[in-house]
């Protein structure tokens, strides 16, 4: 048994039991339905801002983009304006591609060592695909949930639901995003378990959010398709939260409180964890700066004078030898 | 650092989006809809199954009914308590809509509130407004 | 050393059974460089010089060594956003794992870029994050101990700062940056390797890594002048430290010092002579700023700046218009991404314009330093060089993109343009092994010593393999490159992984193809090899109708 994922699994199981016992046995609906969600959002917002501003407080002394294409040089040499941007515009396109389409991950290759020896590099698209599927389905799920927080529900949201439920499978209609999310996150989990190198580098902190998100997805799917919950009641609770008039309607199943609690935990955990890559990707200096230092001087705010070996010191040491070979001198 | 301004702007945009539900509702929660029963429904006292069950599972029942009627020509539903019902959404007095003839007040209210758009009416014709 | 085939067949990639934090670091002979001698540190005023060896049990560290490292980390977290972000946002997706030449060549999981960074990240979590302080090892945190420090030393000097991983990282995490800062921390305790510390100290004193003193520098180039005269019949006299020259030329001193870089150096000399004779352009060498490379980059940002300062100082003293830079890898990372920020603004120089063609080098108008292949491309495009590429017909050429110019600058087309104009047979290696995805020679960032040959041959495996591929497919016999470290180390690597393939610089090929005014009939190239292809009768070759100048 791998300790790292056992710790995380145990933690998530405890986190599931807490609201279950809390609501079912002790009747702490107010705690789990109102206080903790509010706290979680508060911690998320403050924590997120704190982390980003903490990064921002460290300067970027040097401009060190990873150049992934031809630089701008002579006018007749075709520059790769996206992978080696020279202007802010190029950087913006590079960042958009990076953030929305995971361009760097798209390049991923898998190396193989064959008889010979012959080395092969195969385009490895699965991680990229799963990552893309995971993030976009998660985003869709998140946006879809706004229907619980908005009244009236905006048209664009209804449109999204329509697209998401396009295949009209079963009733209540299956949302693709939910299924894709669960499939993608399961893939990401299995990768960590089955690929030996992935298993080796994974920490408990890598498994925990996976288990958490898997649990969130499963509880959500259970509520929607299987055990069923009082949707109107849940919206009443959600609207209460969103309008700062929190209420606890009767008859909301305990599964909902489990779901809500896990989401709250995700919000709280977010700013303290690797999940902050969401903010970090915007600030990564190897991607968000143009490669134009040679044309436009970049200022290092803490640049300080250093001790150098001056020409005069050099000539003083080697004057005789320089004279011998006829090198011009400052002082004869 | 001049990039701090950009970072702060980015953060603000992010949190404006994130807190969208809070300011969209302007601190007011619209009232929770309560489905209205027609007199006929009130008089009947019970639906094909108990109220709580219907609240959660009506879509599934309708789905099963549709398959039963269309594929197996089975128009009789036997409830948990052994009672027999006509399986029909909107045809005749002993259909769902025969009793719940107030679609706007009975169906749409909650569906709209929860942003659910059932595709019943893609095929079925909405019965005429209840006669008063 | 075991033979290359056997080495490859023995390679395995399964990680050990024990968790990486529980797997002790074993210093393997041939996989590390020797420790820095105290004299180097003393010359540079670096802290804690001592006579030590990295395999010693006792590293003679100051009593408060841990405090020094942690304080150094804190300071760097506050000074470098890169460091802070790279410590925080890695999700361990593993995309970088098999991108590292050292991982491919050794199978050692700690050579996966992600794990190399985790070596430092684990300490960062322990001492700088709440989660690490509370949860400890569950959060992936561990205390900084002497064993951890030794692990750092071993693996930070098994990274060539080539940045290949950063191309594939979805967040652009750059292991080179982490290694640079990690090495800076080690240097706070006087822990460096001699192969870096010695060149740095030499460069500081004599102006170049090799420690060539001014008179010797002149003597060496004089010797090359004779060699060139033997090969071409033309005497290409050079000028040194000449005030008022048009341009200052700076190249890596490795080219002055050792074969086959010396042929590249002769190439520069022939080119300069040609430009002076034909176009009246006056380019001078400097003995004071006689180093393009900068091993300070492999030590600390401060040292980098201390060494780099000479370039501008000398250009200012000599009153040149701008600086022309030779073929060197990390030199161009420093010039492109650090130089003007560190030692600029260079307002005493002119915005670089090619005096022969009038082309403005817009991309270099702040740093005022132009790469020789940018300069050559421009000259060739404007037909300012009289070239006969058939003089390189003996060669079937492929091009090794050096890591730093590729991923720290993006100079990919210029060298290819030059090569294609001076050679008739050019074949690129497979796409995943060139340009921004190029593989390191395995010896960059100061690891090109003799004692770590094992490391060099493992790290160079992917490059060697790709060369072998074009060697077998197209009969490639020349690996050309624009980096002095490459020229110094690739011959040994080729001998091991792709025998039959020689290593050359671009300027050497240019000089071989260049028709110099007053030259004698050319039969030999700079290396003294006949210029006609193998298996071809020279008489026939000279008589063929398309032979230029016929």
Automatic annotation (TrEMBL), chain A:
<feature type="transmembrane region" description="Helical">
    <location>
        <begin position="6"/>
        <end position="23"/>
    </location>
</feature>
<keyword id="KW-1133">Transmembrane helix</keyword>
<dbReference type="GO" id="GO:0016491">
    <property type="term" value="F:oxidoreductase activity"/>
</dbReference>
<keyword id="KW-0472">Membrane</keyword>
<feature type="domain" description="NarG-like">
    <location>
        <begin position="124"/>
        <end position="278"/>
    </location>
</feature>
<feature type="transmembrane region" description="Helical">
    <location>
        <begin position="254"/>
        <end position="272"/>
    </location>
</feature>
<keyword id="KW-0812">Transmembrane</keyword>
<feature type="transmembrane region" description="Helical">
    <location>
        <begin position="126"/>
        <end position="146"/>
    </location>
</feature>
<dbReference type="InterPro" id="IPR023234">
    <property type="entry name" value="NarG-like_domain"/>
</dbReference>
<feature type="transmembrane region" description="Helical">
    <location>
        <begin position="202"/>
        <end position="226"/>
    </location>
</feature>
<keyword id="KW-1003">Cell membrane</keyword>
<dbReference type="InterPro" id="IPR047660">
    <property type="entry name" value="DsrM"/>
</dbReference>
<dbReference type="InterPro" id="IPR036197">
    <property type="entry name" value="NarG-like_sf"/>
</dbReference>
<dbReference type="Pfam" id="PF02665">
    <property type="entry name" value="Nitrate_red_gam"/>
</dbReference>
<feature type="transmembrane region" description="Helical">
    <location>
        <begin position="30"/>
        <end position="53"/>
    </location>
</feature>
Automatic annotation (TrEMBL), chain B:
<keyword id="KW-1133">Transmembrane helix</keyword>
<feature type="transmembrane region" description="Helical">
    <location>
        <begin position="6"/>
        <end position="24"/>
    </location>
</feature>
<keyword id="KW-0812">Transmembrane</keyword>
<dbReference type="InterPro" id="IPR036280">
    <property type="entry name" value="Multihaem_cyt_sf"/>
</dbReference>
<keyword id="KW-0472">Membrane</keyword>
<dbReference type="InterPro" id="IPR047668">
    <property type="entry name" value="DsrJ"/>
</dbReference>
<protein>
    <submittedName>
        <fullName>Sulfate reduction electron transfer complex DsrMKJOP subunit DsrJ</fullName>
    </submittedName>
</protein>
TrEMBL record, chain C:
<dbReference type="InterPro" id="IPR009051">
    <property type="entry name" value="Helical_ferredxn"/>
</dbReference>
<feature type="domain" description="4Fe-4S ferredoxin-type">
    <location>
        <begin position="81"/>
        <end position="110"/>
    </location>
</feature>
<dbReference type="InterPro" id="IPR017896">
    <property type="entry name" value="4Fe4S_Fe-S-bd"/>
</dbReference>
<dbReference type="InterPro" id="IPR017900">
    <property type="entry name" value="4Fe4S_Fe_S_CS"/>
</dbReference>
<keyword id="KW-0004">4Fe-4S</keyword>
<protein>
    <submittedName>
        <fullName>(Fe-S)-binding protein</fullName>
    </submittedName>
</protein>
<keyword id="KW-0408">Iron</keyword>
<dbReference type="GO" id="GO:0046872">
    <property type="term" value="F:metal ion binding"/>
</dbReference>
<keyword id="KW-0411">Iron-sulfur</keyword>
<keyword id="KW-0249">Electron transport</keyword>
<keyword id="KW-0813">Transport</keyword>
<dbReference type="GO" id="GO:0051539">
    <property type="term" value="F:4 iron, 4 sulfur cluster binding"/>
</dbReference>
<dbReference type="Pfam" id="PF13183">
    <property type="entry name" value="Fer4_8"/>
</dbReference>
<keyword id="KW-0479">Metal-binding</keyword>
């Amino acid at each position: 048994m791998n300790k790292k994922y056992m710790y995380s699994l145990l933690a998530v199981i405890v986190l599931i039991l807490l609201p279950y016992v809390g609501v079912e046995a002790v009747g702490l609906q107010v705690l789990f339905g109102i206080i903790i969600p509010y706290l979680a959002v508060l911690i998320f917002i403050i924590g997120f801002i704190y982390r980003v501003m903490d990064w921002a407080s460290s300067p970027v002394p040097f401009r060190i983009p990873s150049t992934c294409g031809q630089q701008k040089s002579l006018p007749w040499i075709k520059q790769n304006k996206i992978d080696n941007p020279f202007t802010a515009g190029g950087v913006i396109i590079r960042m958009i591609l990076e953030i929305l389409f995971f361009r760097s991950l798209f390049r991923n290759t898998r190396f193989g060592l064959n008889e010979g020896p012959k080395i092969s590099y195969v385009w490895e698209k699965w991680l990229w695909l799963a990552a893309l599927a995971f993030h976009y389905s998660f985003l869709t799920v998140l946006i879809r949930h706004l229907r619980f927080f908005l009244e009236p529900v905006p048209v664009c949201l209804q449109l999204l639901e329509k697209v998401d439920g396009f295949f009209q499978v079963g009733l209540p209609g299956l949302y693709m995003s939910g299924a894709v999310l669960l499939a993608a996150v399961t893939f990401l989990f299995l990768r960590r378990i089955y690929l030996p190198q992935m298993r080796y580098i994974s920490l408990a902190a890598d498994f925990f959010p996976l288990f958490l998100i898997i649990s969130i997805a499963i509880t959500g799917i259970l509520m929607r398709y299987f055990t069923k919950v009082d949707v109107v009641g849940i919206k009443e609770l959600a609207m209460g939260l969103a309008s700062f008039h929190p209420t606890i309607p009767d008859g909301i199943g305990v599964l909902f409180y489990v779901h809500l609690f896990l989401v709250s935990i995700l919000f709280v955990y977010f700013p303290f964890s690797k999940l902050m890559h969401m903010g970090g990707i915007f600030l990564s200096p190897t991607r968000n700066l143009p490669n134009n230092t040679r044309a436009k001087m970049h200022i290092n705010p803490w640049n300080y004078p250093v001790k150098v070996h001056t020409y005069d010191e050099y000539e003083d040491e080697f004057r005789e030898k320089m004279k011998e070979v006829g090198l011009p001198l400052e002082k004869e | 650092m001049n990039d701090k301004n950009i970072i702060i702007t980015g953060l603000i945009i992010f949190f404006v989006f994130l807190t969208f539900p809070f300011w969209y509702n302007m601190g007011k929660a619209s009232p929770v809809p309560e489905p209205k029963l027609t007199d006929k429904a009130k008089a009947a006292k019970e639906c094909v199954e108990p109220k709580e069950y219907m609240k959660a599972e009506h879509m599934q029942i309708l789905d099963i009914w549709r398959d039963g009627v269309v594929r197996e020509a089975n128009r009789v539903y036997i409830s948990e308590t052994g009672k027999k019902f006509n399986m029909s959404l909107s045809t005749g007095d002993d259909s769902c809509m025969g009793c719940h003839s107030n679609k706007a007040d009975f169906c749409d209210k909650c569906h709209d509130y929860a942003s659910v758009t059932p595709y019943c009416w893609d095929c079925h014709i909405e019965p005429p407004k209840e006669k008063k | 050393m075991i033979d290359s085939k056997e080495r490859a067949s023995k390679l395995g990639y399964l990680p050990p059974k024990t968790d990486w934090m529980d797997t002790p670091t074993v210093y393997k002979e041939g996989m590390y460089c020797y420790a820095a001698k105290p004299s180097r540190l003393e010359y540079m005023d670096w802290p804690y010089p001592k006579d030590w060896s990295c395999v010693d049990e006792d590293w003679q560290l100051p009593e408060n060594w841990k405090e020094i490292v942690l304080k150094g980390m804190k300071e760097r977290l506050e000074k470098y956003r890169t460091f802070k972000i790279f410590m925080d946002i890695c999700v361990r997706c593993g995309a970088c794992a098999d991108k590292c030449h050292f991982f491919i060549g050794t199978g050692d999981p700690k050579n996966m870029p992600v794990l190399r960074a985790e070596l430092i990240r684990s300490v960062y979590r322990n001492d700088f994050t709440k989660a690490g302080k509370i949860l400890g090892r569950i959060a992936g945190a561990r205390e900084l101990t002497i064993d951890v420090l030794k692990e750092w030393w071993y693996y930070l000097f098994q990274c060539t700062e080539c940045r290949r991983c950063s191309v594939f990282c979805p967040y652009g995490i750059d292991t080179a940056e982490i290694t640079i800062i990690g090495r800076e921390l080690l240097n706070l305790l006087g822990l460096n390797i001699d192969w870096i510390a010695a060149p740095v100290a030499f460069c500081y004193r004599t102006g170049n890594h090799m420690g060539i003193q001014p008179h010797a520098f002149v003597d060496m180039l004089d010797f090359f002048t004779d060699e060139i005269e033997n090969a071409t019949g033309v005497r290409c006299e050079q000028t040194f430290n000449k005030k008022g020259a048009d341009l200052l030329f700076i190249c890596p001193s490795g080219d002055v010092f050792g074969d086959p870089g010396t042929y590249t150096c002769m190439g520069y000399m022939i080119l300069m002579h040609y430009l002076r004779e034909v176009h009246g352009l006056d380019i001078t060498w400097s003995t004071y700023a006689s180093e393009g490379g900068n091993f300070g980059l492999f030590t600390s940002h401060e040292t980098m700046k201390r060494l780099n300062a000479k370039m501008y100082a000398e250009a200012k003293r000599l009153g040149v218009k701008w600086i022309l830079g030779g073929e060197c890898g990390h030199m161009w990372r420093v010039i492109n991404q650090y130089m003007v920020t560190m030692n600029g603004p260079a307002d005493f120089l002119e915005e670089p314009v090619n005096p022969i063609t009038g082309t403005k080098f817009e991309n270099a108008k702040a740093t005022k330093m132009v790469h020789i292949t940018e300069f050559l491309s421009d000259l060739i495009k404007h037909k300012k060089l009289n070239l006969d590429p058939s003089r390189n017909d003996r060669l079937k050429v492929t091009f090794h993109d050096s890591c730093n110019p590729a991923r720290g600058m993006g100079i990919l087309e210029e060298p290819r343009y030059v090569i294609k104009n001076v050679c008739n047979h050019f074949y690129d290696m497979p796409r995943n092994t060139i340009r921004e995805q190029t593989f390191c020679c395995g010896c960059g960032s100061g690891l090109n010593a003799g004692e770590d040959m094992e490391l060099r041959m493992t790290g160079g495996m992917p490059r060697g393999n790709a060369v072998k591929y074009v060697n077998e497919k197209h009969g490639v016999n020349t690996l050309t490159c624009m980096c002095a470290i490459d020229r110094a180390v690739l011959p040994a690597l080729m001998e091991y992984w792709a025998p039959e393939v020689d290593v050359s610089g671009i300027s050497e090929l240019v000089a071989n193809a260049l028709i110099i005014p007053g030259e004698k009939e050319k039969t030999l190239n700079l290396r003294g090899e006949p210029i006609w292809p193998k298996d071809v009768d020279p008489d026939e070759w000279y008589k063929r109708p398309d032979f230029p100048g016929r």
